[in-house]
Amino acid sequence: MFPSFSFKIPGFGSRPSNLPTIELPSVEIHDVETAAEKRPRTLKHLIKANHVNYSIIYHNLRFHNHSVHILGSAYIFGSSPEHLNDIYDKESEQLEPWRDSPGEVSKDDWRDFLGKREYQRAFVDFFEDQLVSKRYNWKQLLNDYLFEGKEPLINSLISGLGHPLIHLGYAYELDSRTVAIEALALSTCFYNFLHKYLDDPSYTKPSTFSSSSPLDILHKVGQDKRLDGLFDHQGLDNLDKLFAEHEDIVMEYWNAWGLPNPKEQFEESQKTAVALLVATHHPGNENFDFFLVHLLTSSHAVRILLPIIPTQFHVALVRQWWLFTVAVYIAQLRPEIKMEKINEYDLKGRDWKFVVDKALNSKHSMDAHYVKACRAMKEAAQTWGDGSNYYLKAAVKFADEFQNWGGFGSLSLDNVKYYY
Known about the structure:
By secondary structure, this protein is mainly α. Helices cover 50% and strands 2% of the residues.
């Protein structure tokens, strides 16, 4: 099912024996940079065209360029070159050309510009220059800037609604230095306070209770009277107030998740990510939650990265995803998770071919988040096995019932602040 090889970041030597690790085989790596066939060549050219022509952040520096995500997912699903070109044309309609940054960043001062999205072009230029100095070894470049130093960038990948994390996953999955450069730039532009919870060990401490089940913890979150009436609408703008005024509650639930067997707990977290998107969609809910889907697609990125990144970051990366999940779940007003919506779903003979066909040929085939969600569930099924058809049922239900995205609360999509 999986190739026998996996990529490892160079420069870390042998694995420390006392660190918890999550041993997983690599997902299939698609070498689009050197492949000679038309399909991978088309994807390579479109990724480069997007990189040259369009900024990675646009619409007043609030929206993210998702072209790589949908192109990569559609390609892995078997998309034709013609469909890939159609996707690129559709995505490009809303994107914006690059604009000059206020100044340059250098090796001496690049950290001074963290979190300043107006420097996106300068960061891309900087990392491309650094890539030359690494003799185009983009994995070594990521090693130096993601994992090194007192406060490594990897501990802030959930900022920007998890897009730096998601983008980094595609960089490895597509073996693309172009996407790697963009992922680094996103991680610098959206760097924010969330990193401190991973960087500062004082935030990791015993909670009032402990559970190895993320679903059990989220059930407690849903029943917590302290959170009743905290917000009067859904939306990511709730996160500012949540962390500013109720950090103690977030930390309580973040630290409540025990990982006695990290691989088993990561598997549970992937099931939870699926449930948060699909099992919260009940009759009367016209749309699927736009912010909850990012918990699924960022979990997929974690799955891609675990066989690749240094082992000392395995548990930290999974816990970073969990922090993201707890915060977003509260911000979205803690929707009830009804597992029977998945477990008792009638497939009516439909299988993964149905899901893939929907992702490539339905009216939603140009929706990046729709296509990414379908593929994230399929990859989870391949990773863990799916004897009960849990992932398949969730994917078929989502692929068949999806109409649009919701969860924005009082904000329209045009006014959503993607600050996290």
